[in-house]
C-alpha cells in the first residue's frame, strides 16, 4: 500500500451520489445510435492517407489457409500456421500493409498502454527488444512488418482488399472468398481476426457535414495537412491554425500534448474527462533486457501479468503498471477482511473502496499539475476507474498549462452544433480551421456488420443468422456449421481485455496445432460438434456473467456499457471462462496438449 492510499479518505455516500449525477447527466435516449456510421455516410473519412492503392488483377487461385485481418491476430496465427508446415498462407487486409490498429493509428504520440514486453507479440521468436516500456506506434508497426517478413507472410498477402462475402463450398470442402477487388479465390481453411475497434465513427453532431474547413478522424491522421510525422516531429503547418479536437478518450489523451505544442490555438472539446494516471515510461535498458530475456521469458511475463491483473497471487509483479496496481489495491483491501467476512458483498465493497481511493488520487493529480483551477476541476473524472478505459500519461494534463490550449468542457452534453467554420458549445462559437475527430470506433454492432461481410456456412446458414441471438462458439474460436473456420479474438475464451494480444497468441498457437494435427491425420475438415459448442456455452453460463465494472448500471455512459443503455438479452454471451483468464489459459494448454482436441471432429 502506498502512502497516498493511507492518506485518502472519501465520503463514500457523497461520492456515489456525485457519480450517479454524472451518469444521469450524460444518458441520451439515442444511446449507441448517436454516432454516424461511416460505412453508410461520409465514407471519405475512411480513405487511407498512408499508402497509395495499387491496381491488380483479381485472384481466382486456391490457397491452403486464408486469414482476414493483417493485425496481431492474423500475424500470430499466420506465423503458427506457417510453422505447422503450411506454406500457402494468404492474409487479407483493408489497409495497405500489416499492422491492423497500428497501421491505421499513426496519430502523434500513439503508443501502447500495456507494457511492450507483454503487448508486442512474438518478441522471443523475432529477437526484438522493445526500446521503451511503452513502445510508440512506429515501432509497433515496424514489429508487425518484422513478423510478416520473418514468417514469410508477405508472399501471398493482399492489402487494400476488403472481403465482401465468404461461402463454404460443400462439394469441394473449402471456402470461397469474394472481395472488393473482384477476387473469388478458394481456401481450405479460413481465419478471421478483424479486431474489435477497426471502423472509425463520428459523433452525430448537427451540422457536421456543413463544415468547410479541414477535418479528419484520428485513425486517418492527415500529415499532409498538419506536417510532422508519426514519430512526433513538429507539425509546422499548424503554427497558424486554430484546431478543435472532439473527444477526450485514450486517443485524444495521447495526441493532445503534440497538438498543444504545435497549434496556434487548440480547443479540446470534452464531454467526459478520462481518468489519467501516471505513465512512468522509460527506455529499456539493454543489460536488464539481456538478463530477463532467457528462454521462455515472454510466456512467463504474459502469465505473470495476467495473474496479477486478474487477482491471482504471485510472488512478484514483473510488469508493475497501472493495470496491476488497480488489482493489487483491490487485493490488499480484500485481504484486510477477516476470513469469515469474505462474502461476495463484502469483497465487492472492499473493491469499491480501493477504487474510490484510486480515483481520488487521480483527481488530486489533476490539481497538482493543472495550474488553472477551473480547468483542473473540469478535467476530473467522476466515475469508477473501469467505467471508462483508464488512461496513463505524463504530459496530457500539462498540455492545459500551454497558453494556446483551451479546454471547452460541455458538462456532459457534448458539442451542440458544427457550422461552416466553427464548433458550437452552449451557444458559443469557437472558430476553427481544422476539426480532428477523436471520437472512437464502432462497437456493439453485430460482428458481420462491423466486419463488412457475412459468412455462409454449411447448408447455406449465414453467420449473421446463426448469431442472431448472440455469439456461439467453443473457446471463442470454433463455430458449429462453419467447418475449417477459426475466429481469433478474446470473447468466450479468456476475455482478457487489458492485454488483448495474449488472447490472440494463445488462439494462434491452438490453430497452429490443429493444422498440424489435420495434416498428420490427413483430415480435410475440422469442425466443432454441436454438443461441444452447446456445452461450452453452458459452462460460460455458470460464471458470474458480465463482471466488468464498466458494464455496471452505475457507470457514466460509454462504449463499455452500450452508452448506458441495457445491454440486451444476449450480452451475457460476451463473457469469458467462468474461472477467469489464468484458468482459461491453463485449461486451453492442457486441451491442446492432450492432442485429441476434444469437441472437434476431424474428417
Ligand atoms: P473513445 O470511444 O474512447 O472516445 C471517444 C471520445 O469522443 C469520448 O471522449 C467521447 O465522450 C467523445 N465524444 C463522443 N461524442 C461526442 C460529442 N457529441 N461531443 C463531444 N465529445 C464526444 O475513442 P478513442 O479513440 O479515444 O479510444 C477508443 C479505444 O481505443 C480505447 O478505449 C482503447 O481501447 C483503444 N485505444 C488504445 C490505446 C492504447 O492502447 N494505447 C490508445 C488509444 C485508444 P464520452 O466519453 O462522453 O462518450
Tell me briefly what this model is.
The chain contains 19 helices and 21 strands. By secondary structure, the protein is α/β, with parallel strands linked by helices. It has a domain of 231 residues: FAD/NAD(P)-binding domain (3-Layer(bba) Sandwich).
Estimate what percentage of residues fall within beta strands: 5-15%
Helix proportion of residues, in percent?
25-40%
C-alpha geometry: globular
Arithmetic mean pLDDT: 94
Structure description:
The structure is a single chain. The protein is α/β, with parallel strands linked by helices. It has a domain at 62-198 and 448-529 and 586-597: 3-Layer(bba) Sandwich (FAD/NAD(P)-binding domain), CATH 3.50.50.60. It has helices at 3-7, 12-26, 72-83, 101-104, 116-119, 123-126, 137-150, 223-226, 250-262, 286-292, 297-309, 322-335, 344-369, 373-378, 447-451, 463-466, 500-521, 530-541, 581-594, and strands at 35-37, 62-68, 89-92, 163-169, 174-179, 184-192, 201-203, 214-217, 242-246, 265-270, 276-277, 391-392, 405-409, 417-418, 422-425, 428-431, 434-437, 454-456, 485-487, 526-528, 600-602. The strands form six sheets. Strands 2, 3, 4, 5, 6, 18 and 19 form a seven-stranded mixed sheet that branches. A five-stranded parallel sheet has the order 8-17-9-10-13, covered by helices on one side. A hairpin with a 2-residue loop joins β15 and β16. The radius of gyration is 24 Å and the shape is globular. Bound molecules: NADPH dihydro-nicotinamide-adenine-dinucleotide phosphate. NADPH dihydro-nicotinamide-adenine-dinucleotide phosphate binds at residues 111-113, 197, 203, 205, 246-252, 254, 269, 271-272, 389, 410, 414-415, 438-441, 558-559. NADPH dihydro-nicotinamide-adenine-dinucleotide phosphate binds next to α9.
